[in-house]
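Hi all, posting the design record for the shared folder.

TITLE: backbone redesign
STEP: 1 of 1
STRUCTURE INPUT:
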């Protein structure tokens, strides 16, 4: 039976910026709290582990990389061989990107990051659920590109520009490229607001780095000892506590405290059907 939750909205510090001759109404302010990769120089390159299993998903990932790299921000991305497999096990210093039939569990996309020191991202994963993307409703290139573009960018430290279903013409909104919108290319790539926000997030330097520097280093990390207790499994109970949910039920954020003092934070992009059943429910338990 559906269980309605009392939502706890996590407060995050939002700083306003004013450009001369530009209205503040059009400025982006959608950082995911203060989360960012630590690095000692700019620009830097974040390795995206390619664990995609089909040609179409690989093409969507490559398109996403090209789109995010076109904005002239300090954060650049490159695709390297993945070491995570379907489970999408995190690899230190990287984001692992995966697709698979993760089950009839209500979610389309899932992005997780591990945080140390309260702000520094140390590893991330982005998953696309083929249980739904294999159906007629979601199996179209625009919806796939929208979701992979968004889930990967969550691991940069970006949040949503909007969660009400309207299109801000960025993949960081919650527009649905399904049904009558299946042929629309709206919201399938980043826009200038997203690039502005990345410049804000990465406008400083850190004294240490959490970013894997070379492909060989990534491979070594992928085959080395696992970061026990800091990964997110296919079990939704591993996500931790629900801390925020959008009013329409399509977006949820979970947090888990780990024994080593780090935190895992997970954004979940639910299907339209899961949200419609009970917008105020924790969808892990509403079936």
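Okay, here is what came back for every position:
SEQUENCE:
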């Amino acid at each position: 039976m559906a269980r309605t939750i009392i939502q706890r909205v996590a407060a995050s510090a939002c700083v306003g910026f004013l450009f001369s001759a530009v209205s503040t109404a059009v400025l982006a302010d959608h950082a995911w709290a203060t989360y960012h990769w630590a690095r000692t120089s700019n620009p830097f390159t974040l390795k995206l582990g390619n664990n995609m299993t089909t040609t179409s998903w690989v093409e969507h990932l490559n398109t996403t990389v090209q789109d995010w790299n076109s904005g002239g921000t300090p954060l650049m991305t490159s695709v390297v061989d993945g070491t995570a497999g379907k489970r999408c096990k995190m690899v230190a210093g990287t984001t692992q990107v995966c697709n698979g039939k993760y089950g009839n569990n209500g979610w389309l996309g899932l992005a997780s990051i591990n945080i140390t020191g309260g702000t520094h991202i140390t590893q991330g994963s982005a998953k696309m659920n083929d249980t739904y993307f294999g159906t007629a409703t979601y199996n179209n290139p625009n919806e796939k590109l929208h979701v992979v573009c968004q889930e990967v960018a969550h691991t940069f430290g970006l949040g949503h520009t909007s969660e009400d279903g309207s299109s801000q013409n960025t993949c960081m909104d919650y527009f649905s490229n399904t049904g009558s919108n299946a042929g629309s290319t709206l919201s399938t790539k980043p826009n200038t607001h997203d690039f502005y926000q990345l410049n804000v997030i990465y406008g400083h330097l850190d004294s240490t780095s959490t970013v894997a520097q070379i492909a060989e280093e990534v491979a070594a990390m992928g085959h080395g000892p696992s970061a026990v207790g800091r990964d997110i499994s296919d079990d939704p109970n591993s996500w931790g506590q629900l801390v925020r949910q959008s009013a329409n039920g399509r977006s949820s954020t979970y947090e888990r405290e780990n024994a080593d003092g780090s935190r895992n934070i997970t954004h979940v992009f639910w299907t339209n059907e899961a949200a419609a059943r009970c917008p105020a429910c924790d969808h892990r338990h509403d079936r």
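COMMENT: Residues 55-69 form the longest helix (15 residues).
Let me know if anyone wants the other runs.
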